[in-house]
Automatic annotation (TrEMBL):
This is AAA family ATPase. The chain holds residues 164 to 430 of 722 of the full protein. One of its GO terms (cellular component) is cytoplasm. One of its GO terms (molecular function) is ATP binding. Keywords: ATP-binding, Coiled coil, Nucleotide-binding, Repeat. Belongs to the AAA ATPase family. CDC48 subfamily. Residues 50-186 form the AAA+ ATPase domain.
Length: 267
């Protein structure tokens, strides 16, 4: 894409093919995120305002950040990530100004997705450590979100592991008024995620990803990704004794013969 002096390119490139499981969530988000970002004119014609905020919740490593990136990528939108704890601490005293800057930049470079990870750090429930600073920051965030409405070319995705710790004021109509639970994958979903993360790996015939997925109960997407990576590293260790590392380049027939075997997926 073309980048001029006044426009930023915050594009990410991740496709729907890189998301395992989460089919219902992706389908729904295509309607409420991709559609208004790509075709705001549809919503203008129908006289409705698109959702401006969507809350993704669920345990770590199950794809909240991945989904935000995919939605931005597939909607051809710029992505503006905000890390909740970081903006509260690193910019202490300037958090509101920083939020205003990011929202302005997102508007100036729309279509955009603002992704607020660990949003509970910005907008905790009132009972939880809720001082004047937090009150001002939440008020600022809400004001910025209220100011987004009308055109739908900026959508805010918030993510949290602790939905019950988010200020309920955030979950009112016109704010984060759609929610999706992004939960730990089931067996079929684990299989899809295994396929995705082994796609570019030379996997030996003795590896049956279906069998493997049945044994990974409780593994998140992030766990599966790291399992695949570990397996690849273990396979290298197996081959190491046969490889002459002094040669300038490992011969291609040696590389070609390398495979990740079933044992590599186990301790
Ligand atoms: P956190 O709360 O820690 O931010 P998260 O839910 O945002 O967790 P991600 O950061 O999206 O999790 O996941 C980490 C990595 O794990 C992703 O980059 C991706 O490679 C892999 N992953 C997680 N879920 C999936 C999935 N459903 N399909 C494919 N890969 C996944």
């Amino acid at each position: 894409s073309i980048s001029t002096e006044t426009s930023v390119d915050r594009k990410v490139r991740v496709t729907y093919e890189e998301v395992g499981g989460l089919r219902r969530e992706v389908k729904a988000m295509r309607e409420i995120v991709e559609l208004p970002l790509k075709h705001p004119e549809l919503f203008v014609r129908l006289g409705i305002e698109p959702h401006s905020g969507i809350l993704l919740y669920g345990p770590p490593g199950c794809g909240k950040t991945l989904l935000a990136k995919v939605m931005a990528s597939e909607s051809e939108a710029n992505m503006f990530p905000i890390n909740g704890p970081e903006i509260m601490n690193k910019y202490y005293g300037e958090t509101e100004a920083k939020l205003r800057d990011i929202f302005k930049e997102a508007k100036d470079n729309s279509p955009s997705i603002i992704f607020i990870d660990e949003i509970d750090a910005i907008a905790p429930k009132r009972e939880e450590a809720y001082g004047d600073v937090e009150k001002r920051v939440v008020a600022q965030l809400l004001a910025l979100m209220d100011g987004l409405n009308d055109r739908g070319n900026v959508i805010v995705l918030g993510a949290t592991n602790r939905p019950d710790s988010v200020d309920p004021a955030l979950r009112r109509p016109g704010r984060f008024d759609r929610e999706f639970e992004i939960s730990v994958p089931n067996e079929d979903e684990r299989f899809e995620i295994l396929e995705i993360h082994t796609r570019s790996m030379p996997i030996s015939d003795d590896v049956d990803l279906k069998d493997l997925s049945s044994e990974l109960h409780g593994y998140t997407g992030a766990d599966i990704k790291s399992l695949c990576r570990e397996a690849a590293l273990k396979s290298i260790r197996r081959y190491l004794p046969e490889i002459d590392l002094e040669t300038e380049k490992i011969p291609s027939e040696v590389l070609q013969s390398m495979q990740i075997k079933l044992i590599d997926f186990y301790d």
